[in-house]
TrEMBL record, chain A:
SMART domains: CoA_trans
Name of the protein: CoA transferase subunit B
PANTHER family named in the record: KETOACID-COENZYME A TRANSFERASE (PTHR13707), SUCCINYL-COA:3-KETOACID COENZYME A TRANSFERASE SUBUNIT B-RELATED (PTHR13707:SF57)
SUPFAM superfamilies associated with the record: NagB/RpiA/CoA transferase-like
Organism superkingdom: Bacteria
GO terms of molecular function: transferase activity
Listed Pfam families: CoA_trans
InterPro entries on file: 3-oxoacid_CoA-transf_B (IPR012791), CoA_trans_fam_I (IPR004165), NagB/RpiA_transferase-like (IPR037171)
Family under the similarity heading: Belongs to the 3-oxoacid CoA-transferase subunit B family.
Keyword terms: Transferase
Origin organism lineage: Bacteria, Pseudomonadati, Pseudomonadota, Alphaproteobacteria, Rhodobacterales
Glycoprotein recorded as keyword: no
From TrEMBL, chain B:
InterPro entries: 3-oxoacid_CoA-transf_A, CoA_trans_fam_I, CoA_transf_BS, NagB/RpiA_transferase-like
Identification of the protein by name: CoA transferase subunit A
Pfam families on file: CoA_trans
One Gene Ontology molecular-function label: transferase activity
PANTHER family tied to this protein: ACETATE COA-TRANSFERASE SUBUNIT ALPHA, KETOACID-COENZYME A TRANSFERASE
Organism whose genome encodes this protein: Paracoccus fontiphilus
Length: 208, 237
């Protein structure tokens, strides 16, 4: 037993507080928007928008209105548009309270790798390096292990970094861990997962 | 009516006398949203080559900047995210095309800074990553930052929604994106728009980019292709 994609997204949504401006990455992080409930959350899309709305109804797509994943979206009554330099100004300037992102690897010192695998097709970092360097809190949502069953929660990242010492909290299918001095601290285990199972699946040092 | 001298009949005329092989061009747009598609077509027709293009992306196969790949007119791209087209990857992997990755915010700020007379700036983006290699590191208040350079382009090509004949620009929704910083960093900026309106008909308080940054304007029809069409179902009663 462990959390599925939607349960991970629901758990990540608990990290968000009323009034926050938040940037959600592609994949499971996008699903977090479905679980914010009544909380007053403003979503940022780094191509130049605050107050991102849901996908449009068929026939109402607007080529001038897309998110950072290049998908057609809609605006809300709170929406504001701005240029890319202003957008990354608010990111770099720490105005965005949190970013929820996927990852390939996270290390116990908060290092994050999520943009390239050497020898494989490299498409670029997009805005990921700016986001992890700039926002108030970086929350990673990912599977605890890769397809080969190896831990993605490591002592040291093996892949090229997106950011050094940038991750605050890791939410995986097995549980929640915080980056603290000396390693990772277990915050909670996923439903049906024991602390022993979580430790066994984690290569990183667990403290406390 | 000095401002009306900025209006050109078509994209070919708007680029006349501005192009030379090996030049650096900054282009606005994010994905296929807000790209200067008419000016890109005119660049293809011109045959100008060995271009370095600073643009967040490089279009798709056969559309946007992808057209300039098909004709081998691009020598180098400065981008944050590429590879949405097969021809880009083929040329890159075969060594025909040079690629400089910039983090997206760094690229936007490099353009903005270049246009604002700022030759370099320190940013924490990319510290401790491959992006920092070979760059000066400076510590401010206990935090490390890397030095990034402003970009000054030989030419900027951008797309806006409306212009008046003095070059004041208004953008629409997320099609604004890289267009203002790209426009600012060019020694010369050519803007293509959906509509040129008479001066006085744009609210001066609602101008997104003042005409001082825009030297030539052309009006035309835009395809505005959608890259990822995503929709939701209507709730049926």
């Amino acid at each position: 037993m462990a959390w599925d994609r939607n349960q991970m997204a629901a758990r990540a949504a608990q990290e968000l507080e009323d009034g926050m401006y938040v940037n959600l990455g592609i994949g499971i992080p996008t699903l977090v928007a479905n679980y914010v409930g009544d909380k007053d959350i403003t979503l940022q899309s780094e191509n130049g928008m605050l107050g991102m709305g849901p996908f449009p109804f068929e026939g109402e797509e607007d080529p001038d209105l897309i998110n950072a994943g290049k998908q057609t979206i809609t605006e809300l009554n709170r929406t504001a548009y701005f240029d890319s330099a202003t957008s990354f100004g608010m990111i770099r300037g720490g105005k965005i309270a949190a970013a929820i992102l996927g990852a390939m690897e996270v290390a116990e010192n908060g290092d994050l790798a999520n943009w390239m695998i050497p020898g494989k097709l490299v498409k670029g970092m997009g805005g990921a390096m700016d986001l992890v360097a700039g926002v108030g809190r970086v929350i990673v949502v990912m599977d605890h292990t890769n397809k080969a069953g190896e831990s993605k929660v490591l002592r040291k990242c093996t892949l090229p970094l997106t950011g050094k010492g940038v991750v605050d909290r890791i939410i995986t299918n097995l549980g929640v861990l915080d980056v603290v001095p000396g390693g990772l601290r277990i915050v909670e285990c996923a439903e049906g997962v024991t602390e022993e199972e979580l430790r066994a699946a984690t290569e990183a040092t667990i403290v406390g | 009516m000095t401002g009306s001298k900025k209006v050109y009949a078509d994209a070919d005329a708007a680029l006349e006398g501005l192009l030379h092989d090996g030049m650096l061009i900054a282009a606005g747009g994010f994905g296929l949203c807000g790209i200067p598609e008419l000016l890109i077509d005119a660049l293809v027709k011109s045959g100008v080559k060995d271009l370095t293009i600073a643009s967040n992306n490089c279009g798709v196969d056969g559309f946007g900047l992808g057209k300039l790949l098909d004709t081998r007119q691009i020598r180098k791209m400065i981008s944050s995210y590429v590879g949405e087209n097969a021809e880009f990857m083929r040329q890159y992997l075969s060594g025909e095309l040079e690629l400089e990755f910039n983090p997206q915010g760094t690229l936007a700020e490099r353009m903005r800074a270049g246009g604002c007379g700022i030759p370099g700036f320190y940013t924490k983006t990319g510290v401790g990553t491959v992006i920092a290699e070979g760059k000066e590191v400076k510590t401010f208040d206990g935090q490390d930052y890397i030095l990034e350079r402003g970009i000054v382009a030989d030419l900027s090509i951008v797309k806006a929604w409306k212009a008046d004949d003095t070059g004041n620009l208004v953008f629409r929704k997320t099609a604004r994106n890289f267009n203002p910083p790209a426009a600012m960093c060019g020694k010369v900026c050519v803007a293509e728009v959906e509509e040129i309106v008479p001066r006085g008909s744009l609210d001066p308080d609602m101008i997104h980019l003042p005409g001082i940054y825009v030297h030539r304007i052309v009006q035309g029809q835009h395809e505005k292709r959608i890259e990822q069409r995503t929709v939701r179902k209507r709730e049926t009663a």
